[in-house]
Design goal:
Elements (H helix, E strand, L loop, with lengths): L2 H15 L7 H40 L8 H13 L3 H20 L1 H20 L9 H24 L4
Helix pairs in contact: 1-2, 2-5, 2-6, 3-4, 4-5
Amino acid sequence: MKKFWRYLVIKSIRRKNQSGKTFSAYQLARGFRNLRITIVTFFKNLIMTTIGITCAAFGLKSFLLPNKFFDGGATGIAILISQLTNLSLSILILLVNIPFIILGYSVLGKSFTIKTAVVITGLSIVLAVSEFPQITSDKLLVAVFGGFSRCRYRVNSQKRRSAGRN
């Protein structure tokens, strides 16, 4: 085993066991496997989150916003305030979600709150810096596809939460 990976494995095993003893080849192999699974899971979640943020931004900018459709929840409130006051939607999404982030910390915990704040910030950044073309102006298609792109992201995040992978 390479020196760097051996160091990481031993450090992760010690963090779990709080012991300073030497480890058998089996314990090192099991620790390496667990470390590898953790790293792969992290990158899978990162890729899925990035895809979800992009889909949500695409649905908002290509379907809902150009056709004056509103989304539900905090995003819908931010869109409504944006239409009434001409403030930036990306800033309003951050501001409207702050109370929910605080509530999430007290109810659901630190890990969930950090991931939620990262996703909301990511969505705000993508909305601020990206441009998507208007796909259609047909109201039925806008309602179906605009809602589908937003709903798909929500379903994926719900699956991660229910599987214990907040």
